[in-house]
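We give the entry.
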Amino acid sequence: TTKLAMAFQALRKYASTASSRVAPSCIKILPEVADALSSGRPVVALESTIVAHGMPYPQNLELAKDVSRILRDRGVIPATIAIKDGVFRAGLHPDELENLSKAGEEGRAIKCSTRDLPLVASKHRRMGSSEENSLWGATTVAATMRLAHASGISTFVTGGTGGVHRGGEISLDISTDLIELSRTPVVVVSAGVKSILDVKKTLEVLETFAVPTGTWKSEEFPAFFSPNSGVKSPAIFENGMDVASAYLVGRELGLENGMLVVRFGKWCVCML
């Protein structure tokens, strides 16, 4: 009980410190999200690529609403990360989320990884648009991590992360998600690396980049659509405090890397 209380106290202290940091003026944070951060209440970042490009409308909108509802039911404020008309956003209004969900099919959304953030934002700022026909940058895992951290958000939930493609030792087709995990201190909770990727090689790269990686209550690293990959997990998290305390110790050491927490299951929100 004493250790648990100490862990919670440390977590609250870090949350207070992180939320007091002023976000760059180029990031517009939804008031609800800003209020939660300033008061130390939990906020979870969500990516926007899956909304704009992952599913057809209206299924994508329904999924986004379902995920937000699950988070809210657990006392967590959802913050969808995106670029709207050249402005970096942390949190969207319901009408903006619906606009985003239509933007992919209407050709108004561009998939954005970290390298694309300045390119897409500057281009859309010059082009201009109406509210109804807003131009969107739909953020990947890497871009969402970067903008979430800049906004003071330390936890991000998604479906699948990128990794090393099969044959990646020849093609060098390696996702920026792994690079971002090595340099941006955000806890990423996912169902594992996407099913087309090489799990073993991805874990090797994460080890090389010193990214703490583990599974939720399982000794085996999942294969996205399946709980079984035949690959042993580098670490096991038995509860939320295992994750929080490891993250805080890393921050105490000044480590700038993120953490990858993998749980087999739809959008992983069932573990929150």
